[in-house]
Amino acid sequence: MDLERHDFELDELAERIAKGDHRLVALQVPEGLKIQALEIIDEIESRTDANVILSGDPCYGACDLVHNKMGSMGIDLVAHMGHSQMNIDSGIETQFIEVTYDGDPELTPVLPFLHQHREMARARLKESGEEQTAESEEEAQEKFLDSVGRMAPLSDAKLGLVGAIQHLHLLPEFKQRLEDAGFDVTIPVGGARLSFPGQVLGCNYSGDDPSIGHYFFLGSGDFHPIGLVLHTGKPLAMLDPYTGDATEMGRKQIDRILRQRFGMIMQVDGAKVFGILIGEKPGQMRRSLAMRLKRMLERHGKKGYLIALEYIGPELIDFYPVDAFVNTACPRIAIDDSIRYSKPLITPFELEVALGEKKWEEGYRFDEIP
Ligand code: SF4
User: Fold this and answer.
1) What pTM does this model have?
2) 14, 66, 64: which is closest to 43 by C-alpha?
3) For residue 140, what are the CA distances in angstroms to 126, 152, 197, 251?
4) Residue 301 Rama label (left phi>0; alpha psi -120 to 50; beta)
5) I need a surface site. Which of 17, 238, 256, 277 has the fewest CB within 10 A?
6) What is the pLDDT of residues 132-143, one digit of tens each?
């Protein structure tokens, strides 16, 4: 990562450390930044009187705030980099630093995808308008299925402009450029887990609404795009500010993931004993959901064991004598990583399908944390 082109807001951090007379500060950075973490520590320690302790554990989101364990070391301020604040309180004063990137890619390479997707959205919108006149329910279903197999009519075909946290500052300028190119653009505003308009997380796309017909994601990698398409079923184009490359989240990739998820559901058919995983991280803990799943399993004559973990990995759970696992911690563990586990690892929705409480035919439901 090019440190020079990222804003670590170290002046603001040093000011806060001095103002609060903080002497022991925890630094929490995402995996991609760990290699530079020691340089960042040098910078902070040279500008302040504080000592810095790096949290060496993996950190994939603001759901994963340094909490009681580092608090007991005497930490009184956490500098959390690469993510924004969400609707949780770790109990320790925290400075969130988004680490914005100054790259400003050309719009041109992504325009062909956007034109194509707008046509798809308009066609679907037209079909939505014809819903009343469809001859049979079967015919209607055939018409309105989105890319995750749902009937979700649109009220408009707007372009939803979203981005990863490092690039959100570009959205107003991109909105203008896209409008100049003839698009009707909206920057969706999500729920309490999100801090900024246009922000998306791997587990939350709550800004989506029926007026949005297709998406444009400003960011790198396919982590957010996969989740966004699984959640919304809408076409999505991507522009990477680091490389300037444009691409789309293709139907093939989504179909492959859906086939894999359906395969998992098939594998748990007949399973009697489940491990229900509960995340201990403050922003991943869904105890009530886990309890509900345990009761549901009991209603179906099956057994569910509640297992709480801070980190979830094959080496920590594979050995339990259960037939399968249901994950209520970070939803992406089942979607992106289940291949690493020797037993089926499914989401709560997938368990409901396996037990016959929900129907696969009515479309895939992404496991969102609100
Ligand atoms: S729960 Fe998972 S996807 Fe959501 S913010 Fe945390 S690490 Fe990211």
Assistant:
1) 0.92
2) 14
3) 13, 11, 34, 21
4) left
5) 256
6) 454 555 555 455
Contact status, residue 234 vs residue 97, Cβ threshold 8 Å: no
pLDDT tens figures, 256-269: 999 999 999 999 99
Say which residues have a Cβ less than 8 Å from residue 165's Cβ, sequence separation at least 6.
82, 83, 84, 98, 99, 100, 196, 199
CB-ligand 1 contact for 185 (6 Å cutoff): no
User: How close is the Cα of 226 to the center of ligand 1, in Å?
Assistant: 13
Nearest atom of ligand 1 to the alpha carbon of 193: 5
Least trusted range by pLDDT, from 145-159, 233-247, 348-362: 145-159
- CA 86 to ligand 1: nearest atom: 5
Q: Is the CB of 201 under 6 A from ligand 1?
A: yes
Report the atom number in ligand 1 closest to the C-alpha of 202.
3
